[in-house]
Amino acid sequence: MKRIAYFLFFVVFSQAVCAQNWEVNTVRRINSWDSGFVRNYNKVVSKTAPYVAVGVPVAMAAVALINDDQDLLKDAVYVGTSVAGAVAVTYGMKYLFDRRRPYEKYPDRIHPFSLEDTPSFPSGHTSTAFALATSLSIRYPKWYVIAPSALWACSVGVSRINEGVHYPTDVLAGAALGAGCAVANIYINRWLNRWLFGN
C-alpha cells in the first residue's frame, strides 16, 4: 500500500513540475518575440484593452440615448454588465489565488515589458476582452462582428504573455471567465431589463 501511495505522490508531483516547466517555457518563448512590429503591436493591444472594453458599451449607450433607441440601450447594458461582471469576478479571484507574476518569480528568465501591481491569476485584461467579444458576438451574431472581436480578444491574451506579465493558464482562465460571464449575463439581464425597462 505504501508503494502505491509513494508512486501516486511521485506521479502527481512530477506532473505538477512538468506543467510548471511547460508554462515557464511557453512564457519565455512568447516573451522573446521581439521584432519591432510584434513588440509594438502587443504593447498597443495590451495597453488599450481596458479602454476598449469600457469604451464600447459606453459609446453604445451614448448613441442609444442620443437616438432614443431602447434596443441599443439594452444591448449596451448587457455588454457593459458582462464586462463589469468579468472585472468583479477576476479581481476577486486574483486576490484569492495571489499568484506571483512570471517576471517576479523568474526574473532571470522572463523580462517584463510592463509592470503590474496585482496578482497574476487570472488575467484581467483577457477576461474583460473576452467578456466584450463574447457579449458582442451574442448580441450581433454576424461574421464581421465575431471575427474581429475574437481576433482582438485573442491578441490581448497573447500580448499579456508577450509582455511577461502572465502565464498561459492565467490567460486561458481569463478567457473562460470573460466568456462565461457574458453567457451567464444573458439570464441576469432578463431580470435587469424588467427592472430597468419594465419589459
Q: Main sheet, how many strands, which sense, barrel?
A: none
Q: How large is the radius of gyration?
A: 20 Å
Number of helices: 7
Regions with little confidence, pLDDT below 50 for 5+ residues:
4-19
> Based on helices, strands and strand pairing, what is the structural class?
mainly alpha
Oligomer: single chain
Strand content: under 5%
- CATH class placement: Mainly Alpha
Total E-strand runs? 0
- Corresponding CATH architecture: Up-down Bundle
Mean pLDDT: 84
Percentage of residues in helical conformation: over 70%
Stated plainly, the CATH topology is called Vanadium-containing Chloroperoxidase, domain 1
- The sequence of SSEs as H and E is HHHHHHH
Shape: elongated
**What gap, in angstroms, lies between the N and C termini?**
63 Å
Number of domains: 1
The CATH superfamily title: Phosphatidic acid phosphatase type 2/haloperoxidase
Main attributes?
single chain, 199 residues, mainly alpha, Vanadium-containing Chloroperoxidase, domain 1, 80% helix
Q: How would you describe what is shown here?
A:
This protein is mainly α. The protein has a single domain (36-197), classed as Phosphatidic acid phosphatase type 2/haloperoxidase (Vanadium-containing Chloroperoxidase, domain 1), CATH 1.20.144.10. 80% of the residues lie in helices and 0% in strands. The protein is built from 7 helices and no strands.
